[in-house]
Write a structure and sequence with these properties.
Threonyl-tRNA Synthetase, Chain A, domain 2, globular, 3 domains, about 40% helix, 19 helices, BirA Bifunctional Protein, domain 2, nine-stranded mixed sheet, four-stranded antiparallel sheet, alpha+beta
């Protein structure tokens, strides 16, 4: 069923005038999120009207199966349904059809193409609240047109039946969810609004504006859907996982079912993340990957697996998914990244084991807090302590104390992530710029103006087709994403840095003019950023009248003269996938 269900899905919506669109990278262009977490993310600009689906796809509607990573439930992986990496099936409309067709087709695909008994189906719709009204139309369609009895239609609150936006702003709207045997299978989102974050308490407070052209965005987890036609209770029992689970069970016959499932999930996630250009690090997406890979190593040690489960798993995944995704057809480079991380972690584990010996020798026991310190500092999994200390020492380790320390750590990390990725309580938080004090505000303003100069220098040094794909600025550094198909040479980086610094040293004025969007576009001002532009825009200029070196659509804030920026230094370049690169830079 692995390939059959995919084909049925694409064929069904192709017959209904949908263009089949390939999956985008797991690395998003939106700097406010770490990963691509939903199928609609690559279509965000079509809902806002910045891009035109008919022009790009030839149709107003699209269908895709999108690679996704979600980490909010990573500690639940290994149960019946939770996954880190998964595929999201979705059909999308950008003004082509609305609620009745979306609901009808969802119901028809499940009952007519997958032959799911209608008696097993019930649905939910949005009950409405102070911000957005009750979805009476969806209720009417389900009851009066599709014929579902009222007792099979539930009303859900915002947490359950309102979706979006992804990141700090974007399209969003009420949802209707389809359940089979009380398991959520299909989430149909009606993007009626565009939400913009208000920089006020409480957290996640948005202002909702009606979209000019409402759209349909649906999401259905492929692995979860497979459970239905295959008659399985767990995603790990489906044909999506069977080849990998079979291999792991053979290599680790004594491992628990949960450990086998975690290995399968993490190996699959690791392979796809590395294949999309993510590398292990101590920050952002790289930190998530490092945590996943080190969990695999810990389980390998715990279960005394003498072969390399990741390398073997990469081969299995390549054979199964290679025909669908070109980036994993040859897993050699993926395995190389894994092996490098394994060597680094092996060194860290040895240091951790020395620390264990020191603690036991001095204290004659290890507390739960000690165990968490070992995990946080050296990556030493709690389970591994059973293998390296005496039973009487292990029996005194409080798992509840370890879990409490871990929960506190998670709470702190989430708070930090909230500030970094669109949270509140900051003096400035536009999604792109973040500052917590007046001093920090001055630094991010200087760096914001520097991104305009960096954009100019990239286009001048590399090629005019280079476009900004995203930007994220904190008081410590600026991050600038752009389209380019290869790694920059050292000479190119030096030339780009020098070009920026030369403009800074010329102490050129920075100013803006307000004009209509059409006038600004005709002037040649750059406007490649992801945001939706109003009818009247600001264009920021760097240079004197008649000798402008940079002109871009922007809402500011900026310095008044480039000399205020200081010394500009590029500290790192990264690859975010085949055609997207990232530069990190600082100012001094």
């Amino acid at each position: 069923m692995f390939l059959e269900v995919r084909k049925k899905f694409f064929d069904f919506f192709k017959e209904r005038d949908h263009a089949i669109v390939p999956s985008s990278s797991l690395v998003p262009t939106d700097p406010s999120v770490l990963f691509t977490t939903a199928g609609m993310q690559q279509f965000k600009r079509y809902y806002t009207g910045e891009l035109n689906a008919e022009k790009d796809f030839g149709l107003k509607n699209a269908v895709s199966i999108q690679k996704c990573v979600r980490t909010s439930d990573i500690d639940e992986v290994g149960d019946e349904t939770h996954l880190t990496f998964f595929e999201m099936m979705g059909n999308f409309s950008f003004g082509g059809y609305w609620k009745e067709d979306a609901i009808r087709w969802g119901y028809e695909f499940l009952t007519e193409r997958l032959h799911i008994d209608p008696q097993r189906i019930h649905v939910s719709v949005f009950e409405g609240d102070a911000n957005t009204p009750k979805d009476e139309e969806s209720f009417r369609i389900w009851h009066n047109i599709m014929g579902l009895p009222k007792e099979k239609i539930a009303f859900g609150n915002r947490a359950d039946n309102f979706w979006g936006p992804t990141g700090s702003e974007g399209p969003c709207g009420p949802t209707t969810e389809i359940y089979v045997d009380n398991i959520e299978v299909w989430n149909i989102v009606f993007n009626e609004y565009y939400a913009v974050t208000k920089n006020v308490e409480p957290q996640n407070h948005f202002e909702y504006k009606k979209l000019e052209t409402p759209g349909v965005d649906t999401g259905m987890g492929f692995e979860r859907l497979l459970c239905m036609p295959e008659g399985k209770k767990s995603v790990y029992e489906t044909s999506a996982f069977k080849p990998l689970i079979d291999m792991l069970t053979q290599e680790a016959p004594e491992a628990s079912t949960r450990d086998i499932r975690i290995l399968a999930d993490h190996i699959r996630a690791g392979v796809f993340m590395i294949a999309d250009g993510i590398t292990p690090s101590n920050k952002d997406a790289g930190y998530v990957l490092r945590r996943i890979l080190r969990k695999i190593i810990g389980l390998k040690m715990k279960n005394d697996i003498h072969t390399d489960p990741f390398a073997l798993g990469a081969g299995v995944i390549s054979k199964q998914y290679g025909p669908l995704y070109a980036e994993i057809r040859s897993p050699k480079s993926v395995i190389h990244v894994w092996q490098e991380e394994s060597e680094k972690f092996g060194t860290s584990i040895q240091r951790g084991l020395l620390e264990v010996s020191r603690i036991v020798e001095k204290e004659k026991k290890i507390t739960g807090t000690d165990a968490f310190h070992l995990y946080e500092s050296f990556g030493l999994p709690f389970e591994l302590l059973r293998e390296v200390v005496e039973d009487d020492v292990y029996s005194k380790i409080s798992k509840s104390e370890f879990d409490e320390a871990f929960r506190k750590h998670q709470k702190t990390s989430r708070a930090g992530a909230g500030k970094k990725f669109g949270g509140h309580g900051l003096l400035l938080d536009t999604g792109e710029l973040k500052a917590g004090s007046e001093e920090e505000l001055k630094r991010v303003i200087r760096m914001h103006t520097a991104t305009h100069l960096l954009h100019r220098a990239l286009r001048k040094t590399l090629e005019e087709s280079v476009q900004q794909m995203g930007s994220d600025i904190t008081p410590e550094r600026l991050r600038f994403d752009f389209n380019f198909d290869r790694r920059l040479t050292n000479e190119e980086i030096a030339a780009i840095q020098q070009d920026v610094q030369e403009i800074i040293q010329r102490d050129l004025p920075v100013y803006f003019k307000e004009m209509s969007k059409e006038e600004a576009e005709e002037s040649g001002a750059l406007h490649f950023f992801k945001e939706k532009y109003p009818d009247i825009v600001k264009v920021y200029y760097i240079g004197t009248e008649g000798a402008v070196v940079s002109a871009e659509f922007c809402n500011g804030p900026h310095v008044q003269n480039t000399g205020e920026i200081g010394t500009f230094k590029i500290i790192k370049q990264e690859s975010l996938g085949k055609n997207t690169k990232r530069i990190r830079a600082i100012i001094e």
